[in-house]
Amino acid sequence: MSTPIVLARTGSAEWSRLWSVRSTWIFAAATAVVVLGFGTIMGYDVSGDPTGPGPDATAWDGGRFTAMFALFGVLAMAVVTSTADHGTGGIVPTLQWTPRRGVLLAARTGVIVATMTLLGVVLVAGASVVVWAFRPSLGLPFGAGVEALAELAFVYAAGALLAVGLGLATRSTAAALVSVIALVLVLPMLLAQLPYEWSVGLSARMPGSGALFLIFGEGPRDDMTTASARLTLGLWAVTSLVAGGLRLMRTDADR
Q1: Taking Cα atoms as reference points, which of 1, 7, 255 lies closest to residue 109?
Q2: pLDDT tens digit string along 185-202?
Q3: What is the pLDDT of residues 91-147, one digit of tens each?
Q4: SS3 state of residue 255
Q5: Residue 184, exposed/middle/buried by CB under 10 A (0-12, 13-18, 19+)?
Q6: Is the distance from CB of 57 to CB of 138 less than 8 angstroms?
Q7: Strand ranges in 31-165 using DSSP code E only, listed in sequence order
Q8: Which residue ranges does UniProt annotate as crossing the membrane (predicted)?
Q9: What angle in degrees, to the nearest 10, is found between the helix axes of 22-47 and 67-88?
Q10: In this predicted model, what pLDDT tens digit does every residue of 57-97 receive, in sequence order?
Q11: Alpha helices in 66-100 (DSSP H)
């Protein structure tokens, strides 16, 4: 059987696995409630502000405020879905059905990353619509929306890759979640607060700082750019996936 056919069938099986467990639906529902809830709060606040958020502001700006909450949901879901069958032992029959580990890696990564990216983008777009519904004068310009959502799609895709790689490398939901939280939230903020140039520079090279800059345009260093933030986040994502992929390809599934 040709590789494309096997990949397609494995991808279909991974899609079914993803949505056949309760945790996926719980995480998706919780993330949606948080993101849309904060979108509602943002919309309510701007609707009662007579001065308005500014002449150049749009409802997409309000949606961007919720993007970080969506990112945490995306990261958590990616970790859980990539490590679930390692925790239950289901990885053994999975590899019996799909002995080509490279195919399994490609299918699992592709399905999780695509799903998490789409979920994050749709939720932020929904939050933007909620903000616009409260204050239609802000507008939802098409061009600004495409630009904002495309940037966020990169952030969510890279974040999901990072989470999947850490999940495959650690084969532990708890360890991968702690690692993701440390790299995206704790370490960048902690290093940026230390009164040393080297710590601030190290913070700027963490994936969380890259994601923060791409979402809000702010980072621990003034010399950060969109290109440098993308490069930082992309390198962390690819390195993590390579590490996780090597462990999947070269070690026994139950170790």
Answers
A1: 7
A2: 899 999 999 989 999 999
A3: 788 777 777 888 899 999 999 999 999 999 999 999 999 999 998 888 899 999 999
A4: coil
A5: buried
A6: yes
A7: none
A8: 25-44, 64-84, 105-132, 152-169, 176-196, 231-249
A9: 170
A10: 889 988 898 999 999 999 999 999 998 887 777 778 877 77
A11: 67-88, 91-97
* Residue whose token pair is 């701007």: 46
From the list 123, 165, 149, 164, the residue with the least C-alpha distance to 29 is 123
- Half-sphere exposure in the Cβ direction for 163 (13 Å, CA): 34
Q: How many CB atoms lie within 10 A of CB 92?
A: 13
First-to-last C-alpha distance (Å) of the chain = 30
The one-letter amino acid code at 126 reads: G
Count of C-beta atoms within a 10 Å radius of residue 8: 13
**99 phi and psi, to 5 degrees?**
-70, -20
Separation CA 165–CA 240 (nearest Å)? 5
pTM of this prediction?
0.94
Q: Are 60 and 145 in contact (CB under 8 A)?
A: yes
Rounded CA separation 21/238 (Å)? 27
Contact yes or no for 38/106 (Cβ under 8 A): no
DSSP string, 190-205: HHHHSS-HHHHHHHHT
Query: Tokens 């494995």 identify what position?
Result: 10
